[in-house]
Amino acid sequence: MIDTNEYRTRVYAGVLGKTIGVYLGRPFEGWEKDRLEERFGMVSGYVHEELGKPLVVADDDLSGTFTFIRALEDSGLYADTPAEAVGDAWLNYVIEGKSIFWWGGMAHSTEHTAFLRLLQGVRAPESGSIALNGQTVAEQIGAQIFIDAFGMVCPGDPELAAKLARAAASVGHDGEAVHAAVVVAALCAEAFVESNMERLLDRAIAVIPADSLIAQVHRDVREWARGDGDWRVTFDRINERYGYHIYGGNCHVVPNHALMVLAWAYAGDDFYEAQRIVNTAGWDTDCNAANVGSVMGIALGLDAIDARYPFREPVADRLYIPTAEGTFSVSDCLIVARHIASIGERVMGVDTPAGAPAPGWHHFGEPGAVHGWQPEANSFAARGRARVENVVHPDRSGERCLRVKAQVGAGIAPAISTPILARPTPGYSVDGCPRIMPGTTVTFALSRCSGPARLVPFVRYLPCGGSQELTVDGADVALDQNPGELLFAVPTDLNGTIFDLGLRIDADRLGEVEFHVASVDLGGRVVLDLPAGPRLSDKRLVGWLHDCDMIRESFSDDPQPQAHLGHNKGRGLCVTGTRDWRDSSIAAVIGIHGGDACGLVVRYQGRERYYAAIIDRDGIRVIRREYGADHLLATTIVDGSAYEPRRFALRATGDTIELTHDDTVVLSLHDSTYAVGGAGLLIEQALIDVRDLRIEADLVPGRYR
Predict the structure, then answer these.
(1) Element (H, E) at 629
(2) Own/partner pairs for 462-469, CB < 8 Å, 24+ apart?
(3) Bridging pattern class, strands 511-530 and 400-408
(4) Three state DSSP letters for 261-293
(5) Do the beta carbons of residue 214 and residue 179 sit within 8 Å?
(6) Residue 489 CB neighbours (<10 A)
(7) Considering Cα of 531, then 532, then 534, then 535, what sign does the dihedral take?
(8) Spatial contact of 30 and 286, defined as CB atoms under 8 Å apart
(9) How many contiguous H segments (helices) and E segments (strands) does the chain have?
(10) What is the mean pLDDT of residues 364-391?
(11) What is the pLDDT of residue 389?
């Protein structure tokens, strides 16, 4: 069995490789080889600035890969997770029209097609089948691009990776798309124990039928590569036999899988060369570069990624994973890798020793890991004055930390920061929930601090109802006193959504400063106080996940300021928070303006996992939502009409779920299915009225079940 620490490092290298491939290939996704060569010669590094594009973006390759693997954990079945459970994860983590997928329509987007089938009650694997959706739709590229993590949880076991990948891929795809996905997962699994690309390819291809088209693609491309000695010549052969003119639809898996084999066959053990080839070859560049990157990251390790080109520094581990559940909305490669590895350890039967210390939210535990922390360049005076670097901890044997060095002086104030919530970018939605909110306590573990300056923690936020970001500072510490800790309690009256967490270095005279950050931890009790209910900021409902068809502020005849949220058909949800929230409550004056039902939600873990108190004309029922079913836990009737706003609160404390009306307990019950999760509002084919909204939650990071 692979050593646990080595396993975690290799998963991190695979996540980095996947992420780098997306960011490298995304700016010119869909370009043909001739156009790429005319513009760049060879794609030899990031070209986003040249093309006027952002580097770090939300992308289906990343969101799908790092979300659907959660089916193993959510189901509790791990190595035995079936296709049906992965289909449930699609329904749980996807907001229709917003999250993860390209929403191109029935029979146009494969994932949209399969998602609609799931909504109609068709279970996986039929939801992705050729029999139901047709061969062209079922054999597009999506299964392959979402699959890497299913190999990452099976180190050295390509057969198990193939089993899990076949189940996961069949939710949306069939035929050769499933074979291609299975090969990629097997490559990822085998790469933990084999770094020779020829042997890797041999072993991975053995897990699919020898008479499949994908197996023939492998045999052809590798044979051509051995004879041609020039990847461009081999590309021409691929284009002739396996090109888009033969395999149609929006983005067929066969041509793109062939280009991945091309890169692996020619690059050998060179991560940089593989990225150059697969990106310059064109077609679905971000998808292809991502799969190539994950396999080679695992096989070759961290050092190989930056051996010839500095891929990692501009990325700084940053990841956007917008889904229907907010825990990983804005995350980073190390956090995601550790989460995947924790699932893999359960698949392998490795138990974490009782009492073993959990790493901090940011712990910098792998070489080069920075958890998104970068110097800011918001002012001319401070630009280029600060540097961050992952180093061996100077005082703790076997640990790593973030070292910060800066030039300071009066009016300079260099700063470093890490993103907490994503700002809108072109393309995929970046809707999410911040992990830091009013009431959060942020603890920085510091050491070896020196220099004539004060270290000031801050958050940058968008005020509720506003359009301009503001900054609020915490209490500073003097670096020359070598503080061991810096505490930042985010004010509970901060009425807005946090986008960045940072450290600013203030000084009155010129000098050099240095300090080390061993960890950054989160705690405290979140308090969201919204007297007028959820409000739009910069024309968006920022920091909430929702499928509302309408959001507006007060009508002209409303007696008090309040919000109105509408959902036109079926059940809608408007939620915030993460699985960092343990004991929590939501209170509001709420009623039905018109329509069927309103409600309060706690322990929200996605669209198919939560508790809710649903209020309608017949009374109140408390339910546990669990994958397509409302499990009735209790019912009651209280005075008043559902169509008049009334004060309710829903609380989850331990395994106790409690509903109050006007501060009087009207229902109390026990259910231990969900221990953590966010909170919010339910709208069932209605327009609802909401005011005096208050959410509170104990913050306990890392409790994801």
Answers:
(1) strand 629-636
(2) 462/496, 462/497, 462/499, 462/537, 462/538, 462/542, 463/495, 463/496, 463/537, 464/495, 464/496, 464/497, 464/530, 464/535, 464/537, 465/535, 465/536, 465/537, 466/496, 466/537, 466/538, 467/537, 467/538, 469/499
(3) antiparallel
(4) HHHHHHHCCCHHHHHHHHHHCECCHHHHHHHHH
(5) yes
(6) 16
(7) negative
(8) no
(9) 21, 24
(10) 92
(11) 97
Query: Tell me: the pLDDT tens digits for 617-656?
Result: 999 999 999 999 999 999 999 988 989 999 999 999 999 9
The CA distance from 635 to 593, in Å, is: 22
Rounded to 10°, the helix 285-300/271-280 angle is: 170
User: Which domains does the chain show, CATH number per domain?
Assistant: 4-320 (1.10.4080.10), 374-524 (2.60.120.260), 531-699 (2.60.120.560)
Q: Is 17 helix (H, G, I), strand (E, B) or coil?
A: helix
pTM of the model: 0.96
Mean predicted confidence (pLDDT) in 161-167: 98
Of residues 635, 662, 526, the one with CA closest to residue 585: 526
Count the Cβ atoms, other than its own, within 10 Å of residue 556.
Answer: 4
SS3 assignment for 333-378 = HHHHHHHHHHHHHHHHCCCCCCCCCCCCCECCCCCCCCCCCEECCC
Distance CA 484, CA 480 (A): 11
Retrieve residue 301's tokens. Answer: 């390790």
Annotate 603-665 with DSSP letters as a single string. Answer: EE-STTEEEEEEEETTEEEEEEEETTEEEEEEEE--SS-TTS-EEEEEEEETTEEEEEETTEE
Query: How far, rounded to the nearest angstrom, does the alpha carbon of residue 225 sit from its chain's CA centroid?
Result: 37
What value does the mean pLDDT take over residues 562-587? 97
Contact 653, 647 (CB under 8 A): no
φ, ψ at 293 (rounded to 5°): -65, -40
| SS3 call for 452 | coil
Instruction: Give bridge partners of residue 332 from the DSSP assignment.
Output: 318
**What does the alpha-carbon distance between residue 520 and residue 457 come to, in Å, rounded to a whole number?**
12
pLDDT for residue 5: 93
Contact 143, 172 (CB under 8 A): yes
- Chain centroid to CA 16: 14
Count of CB atoms within 10 A of residue 285's CB? 27
φ/ψ of 360, rounded to 5, equals -65, 170
Residue whose pair of structure tokens reads 């901060």 in the numeric block:
494
